[in-house]
Design goal:
alpha/beta, 7-stranded mixed beta sheet, 19 strands, globular, binds D-serine
Length: about 450
């Protein structure tokens, strides 16, 4: 029986790989790693413990692990132009929790992007103040923080500077946190940092989604615009293994707080195999990131334009749709002919086009919920790493049109999607190109 379970799991993994080899992966928070990175993540490091800081571990046997972690710190500092990097957080959420520990008091006050407008759940309160609903966000639930939202301009899909400034002055938080999960345009970090500092607040930036863009010199540069700390995950636009990181430009007092928040407060072991994969991906992005991330952004703009030409409503046409890897589609108006976000997500999945439904900032007002919201969020990081260019975005938009507007049965489109996907089976922007979905 036990052997059958092993076989069954191996078979499910194989089927998953086969499915993705026939798919168009458009989840904005995902990406795909190189062979060198994958090999690092399955090495013996995964069996080891190395609590603490390199050179000052709680365990023996760390000589080589330490060297890898120091290389990872050094490369992260160079790539993101920071003087300090803690590469131990095992995810973006853990990096944020360590940040809250370093920069707030328990039950203190924080301001962040509104969750219904694309803020991340790790920034959220326990209870939504506007609706009284329990949302159990990380900041409110784990750190007990009283979270107030910055003001959001729905037309511009960005923070409203004047109204946010008023709210910061009135609420007087300990921490103002920028960044989010729906992230089309750079946040006004410079303008609002000045206001945050007037009230004595710390300023930080959650760049989980846009970290790769920023490292390669695009989007914005939060540590030079007023953010004291920059948290990130390493697997969205930055195409590494699933992990996290915290960057600062000092001072030492802040760095020491971050270090002790990571260990012992937030972590015991820190998944050393992923630190190795992170370091390898940093080396890749220092070599190939400028071209790769430039293409990610070009593809996102091209995908939005092609979807608009095909009859869809990507947000922010007046701003060129996006300055990041993301496109947000407003699918309201299709409810009578096809359905909303969840219906479309399901239909596309049947053709192996993988997207996620997403709330639009005005969904709550129009009584739509996350279960079937008015939006879709698309991301071009992974398809770009597989080699797609602007002309391929038109092909993708045409698949969307056939399924959602022309209402063709998605199962009849799946073979065309698979045929198209055959051209994109190699992980690029790395030293040794890799078969993307091969399973051993
Ligand atoms: N939930 C992820 C996203 O899709 O944005 C981030 O953790």
């Amino acid at each position: 029986m036990s052997k059958q379970i092993v076989d069954k799991i191996n078979n499910l993994i194989k089927q998953h790989h086969e499915f993705f080899s026939r798919a168009i992966p458009l989840i904005a928070s995902e990406n795909i790693t190189s062979k060198a990175c994958r090999m690092a993540t399955i090495c013996d490091f995964q069996h080891r413990y190395a609590e603490g800081w390199p050179g000052k571990r709680v365990y023996a046997g760390c000589e080589y692990l330490d060297q890898v972690e120091l290389i990872c710190q050094d490369l992260a500092q160079k790539y993101w132009r920071a003087s300090f990097a803690d590469v131990r957080p095992i995810s973006g959420v853990v990096a944020n929790l360590a940040l809250y520990t370093a920069m707030t008091t328990p039950k203190g006050k924080m301001m962040a992007m509104p969750i219904p407008s694309g803020g991340h759940i790790s920034h959220a309160p326990k209870i939504a103040k506007q609706t009284g609903k329990e949302i159990n966000g990380t900041a409110g639930t784990v750190r007990g923080l009283d979270v107030e939202y910055l003001a959001f301009d729905q037309k511009e899909m960005n923070l409203n500077i004047d109204e946010s400034a008023k709210r910061i002055r009135a609420f007087k938080p300990e921490l103002v946190l920028f960044g989010g999960s729906v992230f089309l345009f750079p946040h006004p970090v410079k303008e609002l940092s000045a206001v945050a500092k007037e009230v004595g607040a710390h300023v930080a930036y959650d760049g989980a989604h846009v970290a790769g863009l920023i490292g390669s010199g695009y989007f914005q540069d939060p540590l030079r615009e007023g953010a004291e700390a920059f948290t990130l995950s390493t697997h969205k636009t930055f195409p590494g293994p699933q992990h996290g990181c915290i960057l600062t430009n000092g001072p030492d007092e802040l760095n020491e707080k971050v270090k002790s928040a990571c260990f012992p407060s937030m972590l015991s072991n820190h998944h050393l195999h992923n630190v190795a994969g992170f370091a390898i991906t940093l080396a890749e992005m220092m070599e190939f990131g400028k071209v790769y991330h430039g293409q990610v952004i070009k593809n996102a703009k091209a995908l939005a334009a092609a979807l608009a030409a095909a009859g869809f409503k990507p947000l922010c046409e007046h701003k060129g749709y996006t300055a990041s890897h993301q496109v947000v589609l407003d699918v309201t108006g299709l409810e009578k002919t096809f359905g909303l976000g969840a219906d479309i997500e399901k239909a596309l999945e049947k053709a192996a086009i993988i997207v996620n439904r997403n709330l639009l900032p005005w969904d709550a007002k129009e009584k739509r919920e996350y279960t079937n919201p008015g939006g879709l969020r698309l991301g071009t990081s992974e398809v770009t790493r597989l080699g797609m260019k602007e002309s391929d975005m038109k092909v993708i938009a045409d698949f969307f049109k056939k399924i959602i507007i022309d209402k063709k049965d998605p199962k009849t489109i799946a073979p065309d999607v698979a045929e198209f996907a055959k051209n994109f089976q190699t992980v690029k922007f790395c030293f040794e190109e890799t078969k993307a979905f091969q399973w051993y």
